[in-house]
Design a protein that fits this description.
globular; about 270 residues; alpha/beta; Rossmann fold
Length: about 270
């Protein structure tokens, strides 16, 4: 399937315009805090961090870092952040989370990055490479904009059960054919499954409420492409892109911190 950037941006704009972008599920905040801990620890140690959030959505990583800068005795000058998303609605939601002058929030392609090589110390790509037509190229881009010795966090859906794959394929087919109202209806039906039964879900009805589970369920249907990637393929693409995996959390969908190699090591 060819990736239609304009159509996809419109669909994400429609998605974020219908859902509450002011609150964030506690579960998503917790996952973001766990993912960002190496970044926060680096700032505690007095290191400068130039960070890119490639595909920021409604700004959960921005929120976590803003809370950190407000609560910790860390010189804010150590940090500068850039967040990019294809959706204007997501960009607006993320901008509303910014309470310091350390961020640049822009609309743009989170896969084909419009930044110079070696522009960032740390790059985040959460739930993005599984939504694109060329995930290997997306990883190459993440490494390209990371300075040698810098770090890339990659989080992605991976292989799941045949029943789940068939169900999602049918739901997406109906949603693509019948439009946003059909996607909303399907999401309303599947939200309890995600919130109560799905072990891989990032939210739960108990902790986050039905509306958060509904948003996640509908988000799974927005992009015209969702790949359940093989973790072994992701590891191979990282290694051939000029990076190595420093750590991997195997209790979640593919979650790894990778280090961009020096030119002599690549």
């Amino acid at each position: 399937m060819t990736f239609d950037q304009t159509k996809t941006a419109r669909r994400w704009d429609d998605h974020w315009s219908k859902h509450d972008t002011t609150s964030l599920p506690k579960s998503k905040i917790k996952i973001a805090e766990e993912l960002l801990e190496p970044v926060l620890e680096s700032m505690r140690a007095g290191n400068t961090v130039r960070l890119l959030d490639a595909g920021c959505g409604n700004g959960v990583h921005v929120e976590v870092i803003e809370r950190f800068l407000e609560s910790e005795a860390v010189d804010p000058i150590l940090f500068s952040g850039t967040a990019v998303d294809l959706s204007s609605q997501a960009v607006s939601a993320t901008q509303r989370r910014v309470r310091s002058d350390r961020w640049t929030i822009i609309k743009g392609d989170a896969i084909r990055l419009d930044f110079d090589a070696d522009a960032f110390d740390t790059v985040l790509s959460v739930g993005i490479i599984c939504l694109c037509d060329e995930p290997q190229t997306a990883i190459l881009e993440l490494v390209r904009v990371t300075r040698p010795g810098g770090y890339i966090a990659i989080y992605s859906n991976t292989e799941t059960s045949p029943i789940t794959r068939i169900g999602l394929w049918l739901a997406r087919l109906i949603g693509n054919t019948m439009g946003s109202h059909a996607r909303k209806a399907i999401a309303l039906i599947s939200a309890p499954i995600i919130g109560l039964l799905s072990p891989g879900s990032s939210v739960s009805i108990k902790d986050d409420g039905f509306s958060s589970c509904h948003e996640i369920a509908e988000a799974n249907l927005v992009s015209p492409i969702t790949r359940f990637l093989d973790a072994a393929d992701i590891r191979k693409w990282i290694e051939t892109s000029g990076a190595v995996i420093d750590s991997e959390n195997k209790e979640r969908p593919f979650t790894a911190w990778c280090r961009a190699l020096e030119e002599s090591q690549a």
